[in-house]
Amino acid sequence: MLKGIIILFILVTCGEGIAQNAFTLSGKLRLLNPLEIRVESLKGDILLSLQVAKDGGFKSGPKEIEPDLYILLIGNTKQPVYLTNTDVTIKGFYDEKNPDNSSLSFTGIDDFLELLKWVPERKKTVVDEVRGQLQGTMYSALAYMADMKAYEPNKMLLDLVPEANRGALSAKWLENRVDSLRQFAIGTEAYDFEYVDPDGKNVRLSDFRGKYVLVDFWASWCGPCRQEMKNLLPVYKELKGEDLEFISISLDKREKDWRRMLDVEDLPWVMLWNKEGFIVGDAPNTIQKAYGFYSIPFIVLIDKEGRIVARGLRGEKVREEILKARQR
Fold it and tell me: Whole-model pTM?
């Protein structure tokens, strides 16, 4: 998947497209070298391909499309863009070697510009206020572009896609995404891990059944993790009781690094070590797959029956969610 919005569309100037029954792509570019402009579906099927010479115009024939997210390729530059049955034009200068130096204007992509307003920054979640602000497959296109790892916001956007539009590629992609994330949803049973404590004893999550359990995944080399652990200490002192347990699970690859940090941090709750370590990239370890996290620190709250109550907690949200769970 493409990770965010590249410079190409930061340079967009808004303009009305002509409503019609088919999609066309036309315009004129000043180029350093001839290149190809291509539009592909999310599956990689080519909808159209245009060869553009230096200072050359281009124009496609009409093609009826389903309003949805597509991939626009200008030379080597790729960008997801929401397209409808309008006449889209692209004009200006494009520098394939240094796209930041380009200056392009587009018309006919008004729906895409509206959609961009709702794409969250810095991997935050889509806000609830998006309900009723978009239409059709714009909701599933938003999910694709936001690339959120949590079940709940993806499920919210899927529910907003009308049944009549569920056959679109972005909607099918979102259905698969929601299905794969369902195991991490609030209310589902938490994976029953088993790791070693400082005394060499194996400890399981299910050993604490009947208590609320706050699980903190961290590593000694992770500065934000260690700061978050310090933030947990006053919360623990304030809220500790027979009904609550904190567990910090180290994802250090080397046991000695974990043990060194035990002495440095000297925290009063359960400390465990997962010798698999933290895996970066597309091959997460067992616990990362089980809880659906790809960065640390990652904190999850589990209820007395072993179900996930809240996930992705940081800062004051830890305290708030524990108090909220106790009031249920």
Answer: 0.66
